[in-house]
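Q: Start with the shorter request: fold the first protein.
A: Done. Sequence, then structure:
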Amino acid sequence: MELQPLETRQIALSCRGSVVRIWASLSGMSGSHDYAARAHTLLMNMAEEAGHLPIDVIYFNVVLDAWARDLSRKDTGQAMSRLSKPRALLMHLIGGKYNAMPDNSSFNHVIRACYAPWASRQNVEEDEDRRNAWEMAFDVYSRMAEGHHGACRPDAHTYTHMFKAIACLWPKNSAKSSDERVALCKNIFQSCCQDGQLSKTSFWVISTLLESSELMDLLSHELRDHNIMIKGGLNPDRLYTQMPAEWSRNGRNVKSLNRHKQ
C-alpha cells in the first residue's frame, strides 16, 4: 500500500526530528564540537521542509536546552553573541514564524541560557555583559508574566531560574548593585508567592543570594499580614516550613524542586 505524499512528509519530519534530538543531546559535552549550533541548523532545515505542517514544540525545546548547556561551558567572552541564537529562536516562535507554539519550557530554557555562562564564575568583571544578559532574562520572564502567550505563565521552574539569574548576574561582591539586587529579588519573590510557585529550591537560592539581614527584612515585610513569627534561626529548610502554605500551593508539587537537600 503506497504512502500518500502527506504521510511521507510527516515520516520524513519525524526522522529529521530524531536527528535534531540526538545532536542536541550531545551539547555541553567536552570537546570543541558545536552540537547546539548543528542541532539549530538542522531544526531550521526541518522547519523549512515542514511548510504548513505543524511541528511539535519539543524539537524547539531540545535545541533551546542545548544552547543553555552549551553556554554553561563557554567562556563568558562569547556569551552575548551566542545568547542571541536561543533568544531569536524563542522570539520567532512567539511571533508565529514556525508552525509551533512555545510552552513554558521554551521560555524557561532561554532564561537559563542567559545566566548559564556565569553560573560557575563569580568574577565581577564583564558588568556590561552581565547587565545585557539580565535584561534578556527579564524580558523573557516579563513576556510570560504579562500572559499574552496562551497558557504560558511563570511556573516554579521559571521563578527558580529567575532567582538564579539574579544570583549570577547581580553578584554580591559588586557593591553598586546591592540595592537593585534586593529590589529585584523582592519584586520577583512577591510574584512567586502570589502565584503559589515557591519551592524549596527557589527559597534556598533566595537565601544564598541575599545577606542574612536582607533576607529577614524581606520575609518580615511579606509576612506582616500573615501573623507569622519566624523561629529557628536562618536555616533555609526551617524557614521554608514556616512560610504560608498558599505561597507554595503549586510549587510544592514539582518534585525536582522540593528535594530535602539542596
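Q: Next, the second protein, separately.
A: Sequence, then structure:
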Amino acid sequence: QWYQRRVPLRPGKKLRRKVVAPSAAVDMRSNDNQDAQKDEKKNKKKLRKFITSVYSERTPEKPAAPAQSKGPVFGMPLVTAVQRSRVSDKLPLCRVFQDSVMYIETFALTREGIYRVPGFRAKLNELKNMYNRGEVVKLTNYDPETVGMLLKLYLRELPEPLLTRQLGAQFEGVLQYEDSEQRTAILCAMLRQLPAEHYATLAWLCLHINHVSQHEKQNKMTLSNLIIILSPTLLISNTLLRCLCENAQQLFPGVILDPNTKIPTQEELNALSNNSNKAE
C-alpha cells in the first residue's frame, strides 16, 4: 500500500498528491521517535536535577548520633550511674539528676505545686527509657511536673540511700546534740566520709530544695512541704533533712548549682577546714 500525504491547496492551483514510498515513511517515523526519546531523556534529567536540588535544600541536617549506652542508670548504685552518664569531669553527678535539677532551677522554681503535683506517667516512662539507653534528652520538651517526678523516681530507685547504710544511723544520731554549732561541725566531718558521688548529689539536692522553698509565695511549696514529700524518697528523717537543707551553705562550702563549677574534693575541704582552724 502507498502512503498518501495531502498538501493544502493554494488559490488557483490544482490538487496534487505526493506519493511517499513505504521505506521513506518508516524513516520519518523512526527519526521522530528518536527525537522524542532524546527530548524525554533531557526532560527527565532536568527534572531529576530539580528534585535533587529542592530535596537537599529542604532536608534538615542529620541529628548527631546519640551516645552509646553504657548501661542503665535507674536502679543502679550511684557510683556506677555516674560513671555511665556523667556530663563532665567537674561534677560527679548522674546526668538525669543534673539535667532535672537544672531544668527546674531554670524554668520551674515558681511553678505552683512543683514536686507535689504529678506529671504524666507515659512521659515519665519515656524519659526513663531514654536515659537508660543513653540517648540525647531535651527536657524542655516536657512539662515541669513530669521532670519533678523523674527526679523523685531516680532518687527512689537508688539501691543505697545518699547517706549510705553504713553512716545513715550515725547521721541520725547527730540530732541529739542541742548545740547547733556543734551539730553542724559534726555533720560537716561526717559528710566528708561519704563517697564523692553521694556528697555531690546530696549537696546539690539540699541547695536545690532551699532554692525552691525560697519561692514559696509563687509555688506554694514551703520547706516543710518539700521535706514531707522528699523525706520518704531519700530514706532520711524529716528532722535530719530539714537540718541539712537549712544549713546547706555551711555544710557544703564552695558548692554552687552551676554545671561549670567544680565541687571541692574531700582533700580541698579538709585543707580549707585546717586553714580556718589555724586562723582561729
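Q: Describe the second briefly.
A: Strands lie at 3-6, 17-20. The two ends are 126 Å apart (CA to CA).
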